[in-house]
Amino acid sequence: MARGKKEKGFFRKLHHKYRLVIMNDETLEKKLSLRLTRMNAFIIAGTLSILLVVATIYLIAFTPLKEYIPGYADFNTRMVLRELSLRADSLERDLRQKDLYIMNIRNIVEGRDLVEEIPDTVGDPAVFAIDELQRSPEDSLLRMEMEQTAQFDNTYFGSEVQGTVQTMLIPFFPPLTGMISSHFNPAKGHFGIDVVADQDELIRATLDGRVIISNWTIETGYTIGIQHDNNIISIYKHNSSLLKEQGDYVEAGEAIAIIGDTGLYSTGTHLHFELWFNGNPVDPADYISFQ
């Protein structure tokens, strides 16, 4: 009975009316008067709390403020990062392939063996130290036999490869006018022709293309190589100076170097000119007139 009376008394008090009056402290003038009950006060406080929670959830879910919450990741940001990561991997693969291509071109120019992949320590001078070791006679004979049978066979440089170049009807520009002193002889390791001319003669690009090599080596002196369309590469060795740098685009007939006598393999002022098609050396005299 006592507990029931207390509960009735509690609910009865919720409906007791109170007046909230706001007055001027100095003049005692009444500014605002509100008539409330305890029930009304609870309802107003609860409603305001619910509105505050809803507003907070809305700000977090539908405004950029959510990005400032620690540990909250935007889905679009993750998609962008994933796409950028895939692009970076693709660019890295492309760069490694281009570096491998340029490295093999340099190996061809410098007389080194071709490689199938870039070594991880390419910047270490010890990587190429093995080239300085002397090969055994058996190894040299085996290499010569394999080169003659696999690379320099008559059918390999026969009508099929050369005919492919001829059927393209490419107008080659003569890099130099002079006398051929040494002809194309791949069996003896001479992958181009030697053209003798006067000193200070200009060497010109045989086709439009991009310079992929422009440097100096002990064996070939100042050397420049150009990548052309249709998988054609032209190489110019033993120059006295180079007029173009790696990455430059040149047009057919444009001066790229000056004839010279640089490098250990040079025996006088001349141009050693090589022409490569699909990674194979071809005789430049078959396509270009040097007279």
Could you explain the architecture of this structure?
By secondary structure, the protein is an alpha+beta fold. It is built from five helices and twelve strands. It folds into three domains: 2-64, no CATH class; 75-118, no CATH class; 150-286, Glucose Permease (Domain IIA) (Distorted Sandwich). Helix content is 34%, strand content 25%. Strands 3, 4, 5, 6, 7, 8, 9, 10, 11 and 12 form a ten-stranded antiparallel beta sheet that branches. The radius of gyration is 42 Å and the shape is rod-shaped.
* Number of helical elements: 5
Helix content: 25-40%
Mean pLDDT: 78
- Oligomeric grouping of the chains: single chain
Strands, count: 12
- Note the gap between the termini: 130 Å
CATH superfamily of the largest domain: Glucose Permease (Domain IIA)
List keywords for this structure.
5 helices, two-stranded antiparallel sheet, 10-stranded antiparallel beta sheet, 291 residues, single chain
